[in-house]
């Protein structure tokens, strides 16, 4: 844009945008503030904004609740585990579809996408039944597998769109230079694909972390991740705003940070390349 | 560049992904299909393998199905209207020259990364609560009587919660689309004498139409299976029982597997109708 | 080393045969150029030789050994791609070292060869840069360097200059020719630009629709094009092709006369026409002549500058020794 932008206009847009931005962010901000209040201040009338005695007691209390560290551990294992398992299966598939496209590649990709659109309730009971039958109900391994499966189409798609951006001529050059399939993947493809794979991992950890259908319905105690842990606060004993806020902040903070890093990939990953 | 050698290697590499997804999709879906034709109520020890279409007839003619369908449509429609309209405006706003654009962007996007159970609980307790919620203070301050959102207008409350989560998604995608608009097009329109509103109507909106379609379709797919937000706030009471939630209740709460499975199949069919449209757009995009 | 034979080679993509049975012999040390309009199959032919595409039938022999089913890495050839295809994550040094690393050469030999290649290609100062930091010409040289260190039986070039600007293109053309003189290795070079073909080649292979129209030295092709297609394709500006009664006078279905073989006069001559556009290059003048009654437009090339205004009447006289005659099938009549 080669046009001079008046400061006045810029200030106007800035003000407007910041108002909207803060409005959107307010619930998170309010949760953040509340998490540092005492329970009494948290429900004070009128509400207290910044001028209160900041306390980290709530965070300590939440940590002490016997099941919080376990839920956190479960969340980490399930999110990271399902993502890496998915990557392991998806990288070869996406590589093959991007670089050795066949007549049916498009159909396979679209079919994979269609499995993502299958409503979870349509298969809820069979999954519960199978899990009980295999004796894996309320286990981490069950959630790792299930979340891997529901996110696998997204992983394949994201990797596919990244791989397709690597020019085929470079891989051909490697072949001409005497590289076999193994060297081609190891020395040429992988280094070029690492940024794409990293973004895919990031986005999928976020999606798996926040998944709140299977994680709630397939767990009771042992494998319950943070989604389930937080849901337990809806019971009457959970009506402690400050503690609820502290637990919430602990549950969302890591993902919020990861999410900010992956804004760009979010668009690509969730629109299946339809919007770039 | 495809040679016979690489082709067979490729098939081998795709196989695991196809296999696990095929198993994941086919086995449970076939089981659901099987149960949907059975009278299966494990709590009462009833299991009759074939009762024909009785479950489907019972499910489709029940008043709870019709009301759940209406609820689903209202919920999804309401959220779509808010997120699309808000998303377009927000995207245009974020595209303007300003100070601290990056930070504003982060603020706007943040809600998308909040765990559904967290956002539901935060809104439920800290905003909608009739005694201690922020909205109650706001209403008091403005001189209105206190209002119990979740029991007096529960559907709207859930729409607000979910719209807050998905508005960032719409904004982000539409912003990407807005930024891909060639600024020379807008300058040409300006030279042709089009005022700002006409430029929006005739240049920007058509440019965004594809992105808007994508947002609508993808959100619909995700919104049809909203669960945690209802589970945590109303547990399906007060007319917030969507189709997804109804099936969940039939299957896991009242343990009427046959009836629930029939409902599950209905949900699958409805989702597929929307999925077909989305796949067409995505498929077209693959070709170029 | 560097003799390549193609024996009844064909290539089909699905049901479409892009290369019908084709024979070609490329001798040791030759500079062979594949030239033809886009879509003529010249790149496909190169990729068949490289092994990047499977042949549908037929055999490819490299130095007497059947290489038809060998993977590209085992054929001992090196290729320079149109997009250069440099590895973006590796420095120039690592890019050049890559083929040697794949061949398992020891570090010292690698280092020596890299230094030598870099010196020959003026890349010594850029060895530690990434390809993204180089200009188009430098990237091109890195691609060539990567090919040289492989000491291949033959170099394959796939339109290597088409991404460069005009001035650089001429310079690189000379560098590649000098490289060929120095290495005396077989080179196969694909281009759609007939000027590149004429200036660089020992042997030109003109292709159209997967079929070899003519194989020969540049001057053979210029002086004795085997058919109308080659006649029209080789030479710039294009040969004037005339059909009808004028051709029949010479016992041919079509006669061809190159623009440089037409004499011009303002007063008298064999053919008469009106000046359309005159292009003044200083050294030459191209005059496009209309309303001759022979062809839609005739092009004349005159050495030096000549005044010609739009609409002027002009007379053309062909040099009869340089007249090409073609029969109804488009083949040359001797």
UniProtKB/TrEMBL annotation, chain A:
<dbReference type="InterPro" id="IPR000515">
    <property type="entry name" value="MetI-like"/>
</dbReference>
<feature type="transmembrane region" description="Helical">
    <location>
        <begin position="108"/>
        <end position="129"/>
    </location>
</feature>
<keyword id="KW-1133">Transmembrane helix</keyword>
<dbReference type="InterPro" id="IPR035906">
    <property type="entry name" value="MetI-like_sf"/>
</dbReference>
<keyword id="KW-0813">Transport</keyword>
<keyword id="KW-1003">Cell membrane</keyword>
<comment type="similarity">
    <text>Belongs to the binding-protein-dependent transport system permease family.</text>
</comment>
<dbReference type="InterPro" id="IPR050901">
    <property type="entry name" value="BP-dep_ABC_trans_perm"/>
</dbReference>
<dbReference type="GO" id="GO:0055085">
    <property type="term" value="P:transmembrane transport"/>
</dbReference>
<feature type="transmembrane region" description="Helical">
    <location>
        <begin position="184"/>
        <end position="209"/>
    </location>
</feature>
<keyword id="KW-0812">Transmembrane</keyword>
<dbReference type="GO" id="GO:0005886">
    <property type="term" value="C:plasma membrane"/>
</dbReference>
<feature type="transmembrane region" description="Helical">
    <location>
        <begin position="141"/>
        <end position="163"/>
    </location>
</feature>
<keyword id="KW-0472">Membrane</keyword>
<protein>
    <submittedName>
        <fullName>Sorbitol ABC transporter membrane protein /mannitol ABC transporter membrane protein</fullName>
    </submittedName>
</protein>
UniProtKB/TrEMBL annotation, chain B:
<feature type="transmembrane region" description="Helical">
    <location>
        <begin position="73"/>
        <end position="94"/>
    </location>
</feature>
<feature type="domain" description="ABC transmembrane type-1">
    <location>
        <begin position="69"/>
        <end position="278"/>
    </location>
</feature>
<dbReference type="GO" id="GO:0005886">
    <property type="term" value="C:plasma membrane"/>
</dbReference>
<dbReference type="Pfam" id="PF00528">
    <property type="entry name" value="BPD_transp_1"/>
</dbReference>
<protein>
    <submittedName>
        <fullName>Sorbitol ABC transporter membrane protein /mannitol ABC transporter membrane protein</fullName>
    </submittedName>
</protein>
<feature type="transmembrane region" description="Helical">
    <location>
        <begin position="155"/>
        <end position="178"/>
    </location>
</feature>
<feature type="transmembrane region" description="Helical">
    <location>
        <begin position="211"/>
        <end position="237"/>
    </location>
</feature>
<keyword id="KW-0813">Transport</keyword>
<keyword id="KW-1133">Transmembrane helix</keyword>
<keyword id="KW-0472">Membrane</keyword>
<dbReference type="GO" id="GO:0055085">
    <property type="term" value="P:transmembrane transport"/>
</dbReference>
<comment type="similarity">
    <text>Belongs to the binding-protein-dependent transport system permease family.</text>
</comment>
<dbReference type="InterPro" id="IPR035906">
    <property type="entry name" value="MetI-like_sf"/>
</dbReference>
<dbReference type="InterPro" id="IPR000515">
    <property type="entry name" value="MetI-like"/>
</dbReference>
<keyword id="KW-1003">Cell membrane</keyword>
UniProtKB/TrEMBL annotation, chain C:
<dbReference type="GO" id="GO:1990060">
    <property type="term" value="C:maltose transport complex"/>
</dbReference>
<dbReference type="InterPro" id="IPR015855">
    <property type="entry name" value="ABC_transpr_MalK-like"/>
</dbReference>
<dbReference type="InterPro" id="IPR012340">
    <property type="entry name" value="NA-bd_OB-fold"/>
</dbReference>
<keyword id="KW-0813">Transport</keyword>
<dbReference type="Pfam" id="PF00005">
    <property type="entry name" value="ABC_tran"/>
</dbReference>
<protein>
    <submittedName>
        <fullName>Sorbitol ABC transporter ATP-binding protein /mannitol ABC transporter ATP-binding protein</fullName>
    </submittedName>
</protein>
<dbReference type="InterPro" id="IPR047641">
    <property type="entry name" value="ABC_transpr_MalK/UgpC-like"/>
</dbReference>
<dbReference type="GO" id="GO:0005524">
    <property type="term" value="F:ATP binding"/>
</dbReference>
<dbReference type="Pfam" id="PF03459">
    <property type="entry name" value="TOBE"/>
</dbReference>
<dbReference type="InterPro" id="IPR003593">
    <property type="entry name" value="AAA+_ATPase"/>
</dbReference>
<feature type="domain" description="ABC transporter">
    <location>
        <begin position="4"/>
        <end position="234"/>
    </location>
</feature>
<dbReference type="GO" id="GO:0016887">
    <property type="term" value="F:ATP hydrolysis activity"/>
</dbReference>
<dbReference type="InterPro" id="IPR005116">
    <property type="entry name" value="Transp-assoc_OB_typ1"/>
</dbReference>
<keyword id="KW-0547">Nucleotide-binding</keyword>
<dbReference type="InterPro" id="IPR003439">
    <property type="entry name" value="ABC_transporter-like_ATP-bd"/>
</dbReference>
């Amino acid at each position: 844009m080669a046009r001079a932008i008046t400061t006045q206009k810029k200030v106007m847009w800035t003000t407007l945008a910041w108002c909207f931005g803060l409005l959107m962010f307010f619930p998170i901000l309010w949760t953040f503030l509340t998490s540092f209040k005492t329970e009494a201040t948290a429900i004070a009338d009128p509400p207290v904004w910044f001028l209160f005695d900041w306390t980290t007691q709530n965070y300590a209390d939440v940590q002490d609740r016997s099941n919080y560290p376990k839920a956190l551990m479960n969340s980490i294992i399930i999110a990271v585990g399902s993502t890496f398992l998915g990557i392991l299966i998806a990288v070869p598939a996406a590589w093959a579809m991007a670089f050795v496209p066949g007549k049916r590649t498009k159909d396979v990709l679209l079919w994979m996408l269609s499995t993502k659109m299958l409503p979870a309730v349509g298969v809820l009971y069979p999954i519960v039944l199978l899990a009980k039958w295999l004796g894996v109900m309320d286990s981490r391994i069950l959630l790792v597998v299930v979340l891997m499966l529901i996110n696998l189409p997204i992983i394949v798609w994201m990797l596919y769109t990244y791989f397709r951006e690597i020019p085929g001529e470079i891989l051909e050059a490697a072949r001409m230079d005497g590289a076999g399939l193994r060297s081609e993947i190891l020395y040429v493809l992988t280094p070029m694909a690492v940024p794409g794979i990293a973004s895919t991992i990031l986005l999928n950890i976020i999606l798996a972390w926040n998944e709140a259908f299977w994680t709630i319905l397939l767990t009771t105690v042992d494998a319950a991740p943070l989604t389930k842990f937080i849901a337990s606060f809806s019971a009457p004993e959970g009506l402690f705003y400050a503690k609820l806020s502290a637990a919430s902040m602990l549950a969302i903070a890591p993902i919020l940070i990861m999410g900010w890093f992956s804004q760009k990939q979010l668009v690509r990953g969730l629109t299946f390349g339809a919007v770039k | 560049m495809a040679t016979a050698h690489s082709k067979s290697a490729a098939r081998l590499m795709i196989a695991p992904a196809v296999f696990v997804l095929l198993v994941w999709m086919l086995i449970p879906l076939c089981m659901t299909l099987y149960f949907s034709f059975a009278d299966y109520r494990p709590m009462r020890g009833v299991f009759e393998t074939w009762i024909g279409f009785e479950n489907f007839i019972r499910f489709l003619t029940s008043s709870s199905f019709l009301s759940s369908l209406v609820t689903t449509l209202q919920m999804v429609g309401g959220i779509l209207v808010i997120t699309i309209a808000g998303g377009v405006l927000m995207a245009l706003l974020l595209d303007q020259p300003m100070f601290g654009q990056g930070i504003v962007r982060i603020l706007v996007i943040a809600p998308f990364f909040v765990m559904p159970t967290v956002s539901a609980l935060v809104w439920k307790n800290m905003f909608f609560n009739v005694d201690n919620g922020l909205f109650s203070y706001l209403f008091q301050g403005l001189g209105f009587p206190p209002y119990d959102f979740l029991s007096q207008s529960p559907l709207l409350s859930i729409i607000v919660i979910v719209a807050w989560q998905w508005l960032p998604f719409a904004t982000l995608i539409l912003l990407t689309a807005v930024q891909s608009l060639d600024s020379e097009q807008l300058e040409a329109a300006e030279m042709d004498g089009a005022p700002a509103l006409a430029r929006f109507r005739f240049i920007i909106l058509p440019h965004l139409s594809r992105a808007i379609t994508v947002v609508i379709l993808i959100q619909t797919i995700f919104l049809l299976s909203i669960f945690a937000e209802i589970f945590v706030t109303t547990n399906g009471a007060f007319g917030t029982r969507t189709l997804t939630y109804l099936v969940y209740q039939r299957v896991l709460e009242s343990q009427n597997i046959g009836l629930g499975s029939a409902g599950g199949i209905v949900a699958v069919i409805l989702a597929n109708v929307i999925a077909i449209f989305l796949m067409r757009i995505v498929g077209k995009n693959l070709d170029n | 080393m560097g003799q390549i034979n193609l024996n009844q080679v064909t290539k089909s993509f699905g049901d479409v045969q892009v290369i019908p049975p084709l024979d070609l012999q490329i001798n040791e040390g030759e500079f062979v150029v594949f030239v033809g309009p886009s879509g003529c199959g010249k790149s496909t032919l190169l990729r068949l030789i490289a092994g990047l595409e499977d042949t549908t039938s037929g055999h490819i022999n490299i130095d007497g050994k059947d290489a038809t089913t060998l993977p590209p890495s085992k054929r001992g050839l090196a290729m320079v791609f149109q997009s250069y295809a440099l590895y973006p994550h590796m420095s120039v040094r690592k890019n050049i070292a890559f083929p040697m690393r794949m061949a398992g050469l020891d570090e010292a030999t690698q280092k020596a060869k890299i230094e030598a290649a870099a010196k020959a290609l003026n890349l010594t100062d850029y060895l530690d840069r990434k390809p993204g930091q180089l200009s188009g010409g430098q990237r091109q040289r890195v691609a060539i360097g990567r090919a040289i260190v492989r000491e291949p039986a033959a170099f394959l070039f796939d339109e290597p200059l088409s991404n460069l600007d005009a001035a650089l293109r001429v310079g690189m053309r000379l560098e590649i020719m000098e490289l060929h003189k120095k290495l005396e290795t077989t080179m196969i070079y694909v281009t759609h630009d007939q000027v590149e073909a004429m200036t660089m080649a020992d042997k030109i292979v003109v292709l159209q629709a997967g079929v070899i129209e003519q194989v020969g030295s540049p001057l053979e092709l210029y002086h004795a094009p085997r058919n109308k297609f080659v006649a029209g394709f080789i030479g710039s500006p294009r040969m004037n092709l005339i059909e009808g009664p004028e051709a029949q006078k010479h016992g041919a279905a079509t006669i061809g006369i190159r623009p440089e073989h037409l004499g011009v006069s303002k007063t008298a001559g064999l053919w008469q026409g009106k000046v359309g556009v005159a292009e003044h290059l200083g050294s030459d003048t191209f005059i496009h002549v209309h309303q001759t009654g022979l062809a839609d437009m005739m092009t004349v090339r005159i050495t030096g500058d000549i005044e010609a205004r739009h609409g002027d009447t002009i007379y053309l006289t062909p040099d009869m020794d340089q007249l090409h005659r073609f029969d109804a099938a488009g083949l040359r009549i001797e």
